Amino acid sequence: MPVTGSCHCGAVRVEVPGAPEWVASCNCSICTKLGTLMAYYPDDGGVKIRGETAPYIWGDRMIATRHCPVCACITHWESTGESYGKVGVNARLLDGFAMAKGEDGRAAYLFDGAPLEVRVLDNAGN
Ligand SMILES: [Zn+2]
């Protein structure tokens, strides 16, 4: 079932084909600073981003990290050239995403109230 969401100000609306099964916390230079939790979906038109977004492109210029120009929320990333077969959407923007305090006091990520698996993508050095 499609899941919707938006940036903080609502100027950008996001729709993905389903709830994320896991999200990626990536340790590349930009993701470390942004703190995004990316959910991946096939690049087949199932992900719909409505509203103006602005790109940030750096390094080898392979991908564009896009954000709302009004409230600055990162919405998604996409290839600057040929498709990689997948797109990454910032799961923090999706309805159903929540952050809670776990029993050990650490951050716990939830989706629709259930624990959301966070996988580290080891891209250090990029
Ligand atoms: Zn916004």
General description of the model:
The protein is mostly beta strands and 126 residues long. The strands form four sheets. A five-stranded antiparallel sheet has the order 4-9-8-7-6, with no helix packed on it. The chain has a three-stranded antiparallel sheet with strand order 1-2-5, with no helix packed on it. The protein is globular, with a radius of gyration of 14 Å. The chain has a single domain (3-121), classed as Metal Binding Protein, Guanine Nucleotide Exchange Factor, Chain A (Beta Complex), CATH 2.170.150.70. Helices cover 5% and strands 46% of the residues. It has one helix spanning 29-34; strands at residues 3-6, 13-16, 22-26, 38-42, 48-50, 54-57, 63-67, 74-79, 86-90, 97-101, 107-111, 114-115, 117-121. The chain binds zinc ion. Zinc ion binds next to loops.
The parts where pLDDT drops under 50 for at least 5 residues are none
Can you identify the CATH class?
Mainly Beta
Beta fraction of the residues?
over 45%
> How many domains make up the coordinates?
1
Query: Could you estimate the helical fraction of the residues in percent?
Result: under 10%
Order of helix and strand elements from N to C terminus: EEEHEEEEEEEEEE
How many H/I helices?
A: 1
Topology:
Blueprint: E1 3-6, E2 13-16, E3 22-26, H1 29-34, E4 38-42, E5 48-50, E6 54-57, E7 63-67, E8 74-79, E9 86-90, E10 97-101, E11 107-111, E12 114-115, E13 117-121
Parallel strand pairs: 3-13
Antiparallel strand pairs: 1-2, 2-5, 4-9, 6-7, 7-8, 8-9, 10-11, 11-12
Bound molecules: zinc ion.
Task: For this entry, give a set of tags.
mainly beta, 126 residues, binds zinc ion, globular, Metal Binding Protein, Guanine Nucleotide Exchange Factor, Chain A
